[in-house]
């Protein structure tokens, strides 16, 4: 795998929480809190020796008066904060959101409505179940949280890479997470849903069925954070300048397309590069391949029923297909900067679904209502108190005068004599805003006080059935394999049978093939009637996508066509693709102007790192077992190949042939086909051959 990079010494000395350089006057205190070239104590006293304790004689006991020892050790003892109960494993980046102005008719929030307005953002991607030390490529839901540093205050759009959630009510969230987390007796398995308690819970709460199907599909193992959709999950209310309101659901669409890992790639990544996704994100940004998403909304009437064509807009386990209500693009997000410090930014960033700005309001979605309490509450413990919004990464870029006082982690020094309202001593400051203040949408509320949900929440199967029917044959096969694997890890027979009973209410093919894989009888069921299949739910669209940030390996040796490799590098650079020379050992190939640096060796490379493999003319034909394994893995992972000259013989010797394998006399003969195939992400025509080769012969 690639070696660790040294810190970028060319980075600006002072960077704001949003990646924008500070414009501090000479002599101002460094806003990062770490400035100057001389070691000091926390109170600024210069320290001449940090390697030896203060002792009574060189062999004597340590003295309590050694304040530097006590401060250094005490700070180390307390430098870890509790990790998030969920979404602990994360990666972040700075960027900018630009509104295109088309949302002006539905909201007066400038962050969305003002054409051309650039709003700094910080985005955090994450897995849900795993600890901070878990692997990136586990099958799991991914968090997609965006903090907009808007000119009207911070707005947090806290979503996932799936538009639906496991549960309909926040009161079940502790149960869901307790079921998904490692067992309390053994603390295993880590970052996996393939165990009894998870499947016990979701089979007893069939409202989870839709989300589980998304998780068992390829959506559960995204190729990259850069190639992942994001959804706000809930229905939100937007209000325009005339006071008119609509309900909307937010969606982030990546310009690079929506792509996933194969199961084999996910497993390899866990062992060879558990930081696969965070490395991919950081490397792409560092290389200038800035990830980009369009923000879109589905817009619905804000009627009394809060439904659309019979679909309950307050039920977070359901979607409205895009074919029924198209997504309207209202702006674009681009990530342009990596964090300067992981802890200060990615770990300390804190989101709150209740943080909205004028023009954005809430619906009565019971899951959203509960999250509005939970996100604020959790920061009190994790970040040490009520002043977590004062941390640099969480701090709004507008004046704040909230009249709050004191508390743990108070960063400011409040002035004035009062902390109450109204007052006359401080001239009535701060006074309520006469203009531009946040006003909730007036809406009537009535009904009996009851613990329950509307009858429309009771349909748990029609939308999962629609989702499965919308998948391509390849995606259906992967989903079946995921269910078979996960349930194969479950010990209790009754839980497996209960899950099969749920699947019988979704699709006959799905339950039959999963039951066969488990060696269990197929239960009776009545597959639910569903809406027409939604092509937007399939990741395999036939569309070609940009290649920014992709990586290609070229297998080479001392006798290879180095001029051809240089030409290949130039052609791929033009597509935003990085070429890595792969050889048996490190160093350089050739001499003079054609010289090529070996960036990967057979010991440091693995198939998951590359989106395609090219074999150069003159590459070694001795069949190095590690190189052969890499080529065969890439074949199974449905990635494109190319070779020119004698390189084609290397592919043949490794058993690489069929769709997506391009050969020619010169490098120019294969470049165009290779680029076109990479734009499709995978060589899907090869999928049946790979699946067939994995099935054991009948006995």
TrEMBL record:
Reactions catalysed according to its record: 2 H2O2 = O2 + 2 H2O
Matching SUPFAM superfamilies: Class I glutamine amidotransferase-like, Heme-dependent catalase-like
Coiled coil spans: none
Reported cofactor(s): heme
Superkingdom of origin organism: Bacteria
Protein family membership: Belongs to the catalase family. HPII subfamily.
Protein name: Catalase
């Amino acid at each position: 795998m690639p070696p660790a990079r040294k810190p970028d010494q060319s980075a600006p000395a002072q960077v704001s929480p949003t990646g924008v350089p500070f414009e501090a006057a000479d002599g101002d205190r460094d806003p990062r809190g770490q400035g100057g070239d001389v070691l000091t104590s926390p109170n600024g006293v210069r320290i001449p020796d940090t390697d030896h304790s203060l002792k009574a004689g060189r062999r004597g006991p340590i003295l309590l008066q050694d304040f530097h020892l006590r401060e250094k050790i005490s700070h180390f003892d307390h430098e870890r904060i509790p990790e998030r109960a969920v979404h602990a494993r994360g990666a972040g980046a700075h960027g900018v959101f630009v509104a295109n102005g088309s949302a002006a008719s539905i909201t007066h929030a400038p962050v969305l409505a003002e054409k051309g307005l650039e709003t700094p953002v910080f985005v955090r991607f994450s897995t849900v179940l795993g600890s901070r030390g878990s692997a990136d490529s586990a099958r799991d839901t991914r968090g997609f949280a965006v903090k907009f540093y808007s000119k009207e205050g911070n707005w947090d759009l806290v979503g996932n890479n799936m538009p639906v959630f496991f549960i309909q009510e926040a009161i079940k969230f502790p149960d869901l997470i307790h079921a998904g987390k490692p067992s309390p007796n053994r603390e295993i398995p880590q970052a996996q849903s393939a165990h009894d308690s998870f499947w016990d819970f979701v089979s007893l709460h069939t409202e989870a069925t839709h989300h589980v199907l998304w998780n068992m599909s390829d959506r559960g193992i995204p190729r990259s954070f850069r190639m992942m959709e994001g959804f706000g999950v809930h229905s939100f209310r937007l209000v325009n300048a005339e006071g008119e309101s609509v309900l909307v659901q937010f969606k982030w669409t990546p310009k690079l397309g929506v792509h996933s890992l194969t199961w084999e790639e996910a497993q390899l990544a866990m062992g060879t590069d558990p930081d696969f996704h965070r490395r991919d994100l950081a490397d792409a940004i560092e290389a200038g391949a800035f990830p980009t998403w369009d923000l879109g909304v589905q817009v619905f009437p804000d009627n009394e029923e809060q439904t659309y064509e019979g679909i309950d807009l307050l039920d977070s386990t359901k979607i409205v297909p895009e074919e029924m209500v198209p997504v309207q693009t209202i702006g674009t997000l681009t990530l342009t900067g990596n964090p300067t410090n992981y802890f200060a930014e990615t770990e300390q960033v804190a989101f709150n679904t209740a943080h909205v700005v004028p023009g954005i309001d809430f619906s009565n979605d019971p899951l959203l209502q509960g999250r509005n309490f939970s996100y604020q509450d959790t920061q009190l413990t994790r970040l040490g108190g009520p002043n977590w919004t004062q941390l640099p990464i969480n701090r709004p870029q507008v004046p704040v005068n909230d009249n709050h006082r004191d508390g743990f982690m108070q960063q400011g020094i409040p002035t004035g004599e009062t902390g109450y309202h109204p007052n006359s001593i401080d001239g009535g400051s701060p006074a309520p805003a006469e203009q531009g203040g946040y006003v909730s949408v007036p809406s009537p509320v009535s009904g009996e006080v009851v613990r329950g949900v509307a009858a429309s929440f009771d349909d748990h199967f029609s939308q999962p059935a629609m989702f499965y029917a919308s998948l391509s044959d390849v995606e259906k096969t992967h989903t079946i394999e995921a269910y078979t694997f996960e349930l194969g890890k479950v010990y209790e027979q009754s839980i497996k049978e209960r899950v099969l009973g749920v699947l019988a209410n979704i699709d006959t093919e799905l339950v039959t093939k999963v039951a066969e894989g488990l060696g269990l009888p197929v239960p009776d069921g009545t597959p639910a009637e569903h809406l027409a299949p939604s092509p937007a739910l399939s990741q395999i669209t036939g569309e070609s996508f940009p290649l920014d940030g992709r990586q290609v390996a070229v297998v080479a040796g001392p006798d290879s066509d180095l001029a051809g490799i240089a030409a290949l590098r130039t052609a791929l650079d033009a597509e935003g693709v990085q070429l890595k020379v792969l050889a048996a050992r490190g160093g350089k190939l050739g001499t003079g102007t054609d010289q090529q640096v070996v960036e990967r060796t057979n010991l440091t490379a693995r198939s998951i790192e590359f989106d395609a493999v090219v074999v150069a003319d003159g590459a070694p034909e001795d069949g190095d077992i590690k190189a052969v394994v890499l080529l065969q893995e890439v074949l199974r992972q449905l990635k494109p190949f190319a070779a020119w000259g004698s390189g084609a013989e290397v592919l043949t010797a490794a058993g690489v042939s069929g769709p997506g394998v391009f050969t020619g006399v010169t490098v120019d003969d294969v470049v165009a086909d290779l680029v076109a195939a990479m734009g499709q992400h995978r060589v899907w025509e090869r999928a049946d051959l790979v699946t067939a080769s994995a099935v054991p012969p009948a006995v």
